[in-house]
Amino acid sequence: MEIIRVKDAAAGGKKAFEIIQQAMKDGIHTLGLATGSTPITLYQEMTNSDLDFSNMTSINLDEYVGLGGEDKQSYRYFMNENLFNQKPFKETFVPNGKAEDLQAECQRYDDVIATHPIDIQILGIGRNGHIGFNEPGTPLDSKTSVVNLTESTIEANKRFFDKVEDVPTKAVSMGIGSILQGKKMVLMAYGADKADAIKGMVDGPVTTDLPASALQNHPDVVVIVDDAAASKL
Ligand code: GLP
């Protein structure tokens, strides 16, 4: 793992942007994208840049079960607002959280990943070390599946909803195995509440207790952290 320390989220967004910019010059086609507050500075860099994404494909990590693109808290809506409306891509994939047959949707999504190999996978990290919505206990080779969110994740994500009861309890998430198929991983983390997860991911054992520790088994991982998130390294 290459660890890049930055002053703050703004500087982190610039670093991640530089990696994408160089890779696009080198001819990549497909970005794996993430939601949450962490990648917002990266998406600002992308929208403010003169880069053209109209030949690029994007594949997002996850979506809440029960929310559709018109729901303001859905990840599809988040991506449209923060990136795609300003910078159109050739095609953008986000799991369909309103699919009638969620199992079929998971299979469809793994097929999408197989036919569009991800060149760079952007990742945030949950306070409990989750990536995508793969909570502790998820097998490290898991495929896309319907997952139950933990109490702590529901608590952490309630800030985006009017009340905690509105936070969905399930999501469709790319599996850890699906994520690790990407050629390069770029994980960003900012703030003291990510410090334990970052410490475990970098220095701890590879364990299902901390899903992000699986990144230790990937040959090309860049971790972009501010001082607070890196404070326990
Ligand atoms: C959610 C997302 C993750 C994200 C995490 C951290 O659970 N499914 O992809 O990494 O939140 O969010 P934030 O960046 O807001 O701290």
Automatic annotation (TrEMBL):
CDD domains (UniProt xref): GlcN6P_deaminase (cd01399)
A GO MF term: identical protein binding
GO cellular component, one term: cytoplasm
Active site feature: 62 (proton acceptor), 128 (for ring-opening step), 130 (proton acceptor), 135 (for ring-opening step)
GO biological process: one example: N-acetylneuraminate catabolic process
UniProt superkingdom: Bacteria
Keyword S-adenosyl-L-methionine: no
Pathway recorded for this protein: Amino-sugar metabolism; N-acetylneuraminate degradation; D-fructose 6-phosphate from N-acetylneuraminate: step 5/5
Domain Glucosamine/galactosamine-6-phosphate isomerase: 14-218
Gene3D superfamilies xref list: 3.40.50.1360
InterPro entries per UniProt: Glc/Gal-6P_isomerase, Glucosamine6P_isomerase, Glucosamine6P_isomerase_CS, NagB/RpiA_transferase-like
Keywords, alphabetical: Carbohydrate metabolism, Hydrolase
UniProt enzyme class: hydrolase
EC number(s) reported in the record: 3.5.99.6
Reaction catalysis annotation: alpha-D-glucosamine 6-phosphate + H2O = beta-D-fructose 6-phosphate + NH4(+)
Protein family per UniProt: Belongs to the glucosamine/galactosamine-6-phosphate isomerase family. NagB subfamily.
Function text: Catalyzes the reversible isomerization-deamination of glucosamine 6-phosphate (GlcN6P) to form fructose 6-phosphate (Fru6P) and ammonium ion.
Name the record gives this protein: Glucosamine-6-phosphate deaminase
Organism: Enterococcus canintestini
Gene designation per UniProt: nagB
